[in-house]
């Protein structure tokens, strides 16, 4: 008598949406809950997972999607070690190799070399070099200083070029082992005309304006990092620019199309369309102000990547 052997069953799909364990009231995660709910509605076992929770078995997940681990700058080495671990046991998006490249804003220089318009920037590892940069500006010109590794505008300041507080900030960044970015002020950026264009699997999904963030003289408007996202339309030129940025990212890294991307840009009278940041790691998607179809688009893209 022949005994039939049951056909092997595939492991159930399980998705972890990577977050942290607390957020300031002015900078909440509005994206994880609707994404988890959307995945569950499609029969996918999805949950939020805190990246530094030592009790989590990361190998149990089919896919990890980096969403809002926004405390990583304070735990930078720990985060890099976590990335190394999880990429060995499961699939992570966006991929850790892309995240590592994106963590240091010196990637902007690589993209500029590939023809992407960026804000003119120097990258300095000594206060003397920053002092020389500032001396090259007119005394009443305004400049922006920030570290190459940062999030939420940490240690970022807008100053007159002759303001001694600019050098104080530079000294703090260099003293902590960082690299200082020195940029001219872009007046349109200070006027709140920055746009963030989102792309899912390389295609534009929505855009927001978040208003100006930096207060003259250093620090943030209102004293805290708080975006005020408002849905806006993107132009055909801006969409082409954003797609071009992602094409340059792929050329620079040798990696495939990111699952998600946020391209921060501003249309400058002096420089034209320029890239402020290509956020390929943990951008707030601002789903709470986006059309409902955008959440479905994000969920569909994640579901497709589990196959």
Automatic annotation (TrEMBL):
InterPro entries: DcsG_Biosynth_Enzyme (IPR053191)
Protein name per the record: ATP-grasp domain-containing protein
Organism of origin: Cellulomonas gilvus (strain ATCC 13127 / NRRL B-14078)
Lineage: Bacteria, Bacillati, Actinomycetota, Actinomycetes, Micrococcales
């Amino acid at each position: 008598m022949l005994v039939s052997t049951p056909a092997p069953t595939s492991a159930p799909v399980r998705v972890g949406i990577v977050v942290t364990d607390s957020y300031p009231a002015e900078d909440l995660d509005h994206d994880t809950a609707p994404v988890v709910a959307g995945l569950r509605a499609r029969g996918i076992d999805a949950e939020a997972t805190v990246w530094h929770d030592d009790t989590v078995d990361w190998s149990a997940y089919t896919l990890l999607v980096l969403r809002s681990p926004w405390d990583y700058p304070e735990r930078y080495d720990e985060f890099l070690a976590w990335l190394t671990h999880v990429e060995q046991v499961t699939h992570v998006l966006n991929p850790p190799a892309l995240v590592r490249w994106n963590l240091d804003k010196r990637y902007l220089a690589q993209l500029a070399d590939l023809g992407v318009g960026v804000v003119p920037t120097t990258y300095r590892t000594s206060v003397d070099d920053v002092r020389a940069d500032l001396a090259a500006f007119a005394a009443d010109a305004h400049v922006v200083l920030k570290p190459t590794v940062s999030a939420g505008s940490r240690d970022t300041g807008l100053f007159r070029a002759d303001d001694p507080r600019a050098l104080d900030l530079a000294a703090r960044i260099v003293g902590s082992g960082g690299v200082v970015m020195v940029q001219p002020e872009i007046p349109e950026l200070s006027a709140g005309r920055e746009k963030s264009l989102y792309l899912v699997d390389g295609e534009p999904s929505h855009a927001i304006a978040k208003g100006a963030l930096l207060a003259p003289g250093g620090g943030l408007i209102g004293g805290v990092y708080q975006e005020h996202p408002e849905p806006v339309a993107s132009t055909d030129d801006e969409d082409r620019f954003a797609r071009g940025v992602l094409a340059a990212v792929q050329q620079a890294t040798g990696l495939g199309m990111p699952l998600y991307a946020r391209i921060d840009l501003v249309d400058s009278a002096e420089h034209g369309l320029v890239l402020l940041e290509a956020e390929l790691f943990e951008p707030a998607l601002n789903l709470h102000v986006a059309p409902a179809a955008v959440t479905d688009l994000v969920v569909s893209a994640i579901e497709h990547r589990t196959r």
